Recover the amino acids of this structure.
């Protein structure tokens, strides 16, 4: 139950980040909602397509869809107030990312995916929404060149997979994976960690 | 039978809009055909992936694929003549959009999707081709920021789902949904309706 | 066995082209790896989604994923040396493209897809990685407007489908399709073949 509420919090945080980008791009109200909804539930939809879950859970579930849509509408109307909440949104987004990475890996394992596939599918669930967001608004995905975002997601998924292989129950694995991914992400934001770029010799 | 012919008309109208964008971007003949074909049958492919219909109908069906390819080739060779048919293409496109929204919702219901999922999948079938078109040619999807396009599609799908829930036969639902979506879209074009953008305080 | 090794060579060549594009765009090390891995195994993932193979082979297979990741890392660290191997990479890429087109068509036929669908799915497996690469780094896909790339892929897939329909064994069909696609691609590179663009009357 707590996990379910946290998942909705994650969807809301993702949707808020998508809708804010839509506002920045001056899309109309529907465009803001589409980008927000895709960012909120897109990662879960891609995860379900990869795992043969039809139709994807988030498309058929009112709480998930409603959370993403409601958050996008809130952002559209209140974005100037929300811009002061930027820090809080980043924290929620980190928690959401950690949750998607861990639950994605657990769901993949439950559907019989191999350890490698489960780790990659968990990572995809966590970062898919952000990639869809940036492709839709015609930007090079942020997480490809600026943010340390996907490494924490993959490490969280990997921890879930490894602890399941070692026989831990799904709940312990979920909590450990979520904590690892979210804390690493918050540390990266706080300490301004970033990855090296290629050495270009002009 | 009439519905099937109208579906091919819709595919042709979508493919024509995709191929015209390709011509504007000065792609070569193959690029124009790829963008045209994707725009024509892309929405149906995404719908079938979401519904677990493998391989997607449009990939395995000569009439659908041939219509999309033939239309794209026609546009490539005759685009200067066709640019005078812009108005007619917009009308056909509105009818195609309405048909895809309604048939998508009916097919989703038949495959056991929930009412919410059926409505969203119908909307996706109607707008998916246009989004793929704009992502491929590296534009922010038109329907996110200028056109009133997706709201009529979603309303058409929703009408189909609601009337099916109320016990109407699929044919009546199909006709009502298609008419609603297409007429709204044509009214939006004719009256130049558009949605409000976010109020940006500089 | 030889075919399997050649498939890994194809994945490596695709991944190298993706990672090189990532380096050119000055992505960080993770971004270069994501673009490289997507380019290397993306075509196969899309093929498996279209054919209902879950989870996609390349996501669950260490050799495929490891080859793509390892090649991307090599490119990241050694890209200045590799830029002198541009010609060799293009040859390997042509062989990989031919192999993906042929194996994609054979796998589709084995999964009961119609001849048309098998031909299109083989072509998609061969060009999907390159399209994902260019969409991720925010370019109009190269193969839509400059390179003669997809026509050889589709002809290779078509040859596989036709020879299977005529009763040849899968091995002969695979070799013939791969050879046709790869040789056409190399000829196109060598003779600088390109397709006509639309005649624009200003």
């Amino acid at each position: 139950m707590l996990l379910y509420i946290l998942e909705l919090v994650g969807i809301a945080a993702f949707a808020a980040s998508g809708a804010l980008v839509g506002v920045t791009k001056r899309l109309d109200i529907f465009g803001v909602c589409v980008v927000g909804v895709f960012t909120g539930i897109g990662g879960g939809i891609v995860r379900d397509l990869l795992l043969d879950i039809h139709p994807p859970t988030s498309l058929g579930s009112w709480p998930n869809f409603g959370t993403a849509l409601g958050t996008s509408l809130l952002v559209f109307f209140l974005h100037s107030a929300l811009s002061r909440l930027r820090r809080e949104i980043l924290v929620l987004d980190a928690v959401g990312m950690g949750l998607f990475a861990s639950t994605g890996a657990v769901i993949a394992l439950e559907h019989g995916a191999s350890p490698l596939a489960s780790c990659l599918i968990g990572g995809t669930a966590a970062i898919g929404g952000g990639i869809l967001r940036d492709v839709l608004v015609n930007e090079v995905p942020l997480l490809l060149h600026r943010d340390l975002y996907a490494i924490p997601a993959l490490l969280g998924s990997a921890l879930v997979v490894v602890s399941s292989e070692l026989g831990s129950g799904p709940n312990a694995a979920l909590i450990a994976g979520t904590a690892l991914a979210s804390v690493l992400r918050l540390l990266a934001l706080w300490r301004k960690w970033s990855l090296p770029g290629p050495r270009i010799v002009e």
